[in-house]
Amino acid sequence: MSQSKKIIVYINIAHFIDHYAMLIFAAAVLIIAPTFNMKYGELLPYATPGFIAFGAGSLLAGWLGDKWSRRNMMAIFFFGMGLTLFGVSFIQTPLQLGFMLLLIGMIASIYHPVGTAMLVSNAEKLGKEMGINGVWGNIGVASSALITGIITEYFGWRIAFLVPAVVCLLVGFLYLRSIPSSVDQIVKKSSAGSARVSKSVMIWVVASLVITVIASSTTFNAITVALPKLFQERLSNLTTNTATLGIITFFVYLSGALAQYIIGNLLDKFSLKNIFLPLAIVIVPTLYLASTISDYWLIVLAIIIIVAIFGQVTVNDTMLGKYTADEWRGRAYAARYFLGFTAAGLSVGLVSILYNQGGFDLMLKAIAGLSLLTVVGAVIFPKEDRKS
Fold first, then answer.
1. In which band, very low, low, confident or very high, does the pLDDT at 386 lie, cut at 50, 70 and 90?
2. Helices 202-234 and 329-370 sit at what angle, rounded to 10 degrees?
3. What is the predicted pLDDT for the residue at 141?
4. pLDDT value of residue 188
5. Mean per-residue pLDDT for 148-170?
6. CB 339 within 8 Å of CB 215
7. What percent of the chain has pLDDT over 70?
8. Lowest mean pLDDT segment, chosen from 129-138, 221-230, 305-314
9. Vertex 310: Cα angle to 65 and 355 (nearest 5)
10. pTM, whole model, 2 decimals?
């Protein structure tokens, strides 16, 4: 296996770990809250600082990756994530939990600006590799709900943090052995970095990206955080077993992962706008309909929503990869993820407030309204010049 392919394998594994780790709490909170004599809506805000750090930390991480070492930053990611997850399994108070979730968010912030920049630099076909990388990330999201649901049901929530901690540390050791520090000096010319629109309309690319990142990231995070609780409430006629709900959530997320792979390949063949706009449009009515639906139809709508939301992430990352040069790509992704994850971090508090005010009926309708901004972003995005 070539060095570039090895790097991409570890970057994909890191993407899995990143999303898995960030969403353990979203699934485990259903079990953790009663142990502290708290309600779901009361304990959920303790995750807010961690989600904000997930975005805010990306600025420093991206700068360090570009200026110091992307390879070493990813080593810090693997070992740091292992140690912080290990720490959560020993907390005794909600305040300690909030602090450890903050540390997890800080470590998790390394992956997207640094890992995505490494991926783009080593990719032959950018859309395809972005799609595959998206699959790994979304299987991480899906597996988090599934595995955390099963472990918390049968072994307790502390073990749900301890098991992935051990896995992270093992992957970290293998990464250091397999990827030499010399990879930072080798910048491969990939299919990225060649702008496909004229400079005169580049402002529309930037405007579209800013609007879309804020709206779609908030939507993405709100839905992924709320889905376990939404299913617990709205699928109660089908099942009340935590593990079974985790399995349903897993397959919903898996459909999103499969869609990302397909969308990634389509982005190498068609213009971004032709993929971007339909995905943006479908999110709004499905979220609105989901606000009042339950049981089997809710599962169907959830699949459509997750497919559209996850596909949007691949579009955003490919968009940025195509219009940035390698030497400052880490910082470009840092800015993108700072914007997106900071907005997304605030969405945890938003979910809590809207849920407490009007349940998931109000929350999903509000998020549907916010998603109209993604449609605006897609509409103003210019057509690409696909001559190459």
1. low
2. 50
3. 77
4. 45
5. 94
6. no
7. 94
8. 221-230
9. 105
10. 0.78
At residue 264, what is the residue type?
G
Residue 249 in tokens: 């959530």
The tokens for 201 are 């309309």
Residue 328 has pLDDT above 80, yes or no: no
| Cβ atoms 254, 246 nearer than 8 A | no
Radius of gyration over alpha carbons of the chain, in Å? 20
> Distance between CA atoms of 136 and 221, rounded to whole angstroms?
17
Q: Which amino acid belongs to residue 138?
A: N
Residue 249: its pLDDT value, please? 84
Domain positions in the chain:
3-380
CA distance 43 to 38: 6
Calpha distance 68→283 (Å, rounded): 40
3-380, CATH topology level: Growth Hormone; Chain: A; (1.20.1250)
The identity of residue 303, as a single letter, is I
What mean pLDDT is reported for the chain? Answer: 86
Instruction: Give me the pLDDT at residue 17, please.
Output: 97
Q: What does the H/E/C string look like for the chain?
A: CCHHHHHHHHHHHHHHHHHHHHHHHHHHHHHHHHHCCCCHHHHHHHHHHHHHHHHHHHHHHHHHHHHCCHHHHHHHHHHHHHHHHHHHCCCCCHHHHHHHHHHHHHHHCCHHHHHHHHHHHHCCCHHHHHHHHHHHHHHHHHHHHHHHHHHHHHCCHHHHHHHHHHHHHHHHHHHHHHCCHHHHHCCCCCCCCCCCCCHHHHHHHHHHHHHHHHHHHHHHHHHHHHHHHHHHHHCCCCCCCHHHHHHHHHHHHHHHHHHHHHHHHHHCCCCHHHHHHHHHHHHHHHHHHHCCCCHHHHHHHHHHHHHHHHHHHHHHHHHHHHCCCHHHHHHHHHHHHHHHHHHHHHHHHHHHHHHHHHHHHHHHHHHHHHCHHHHHHHHHCCCCCCCC
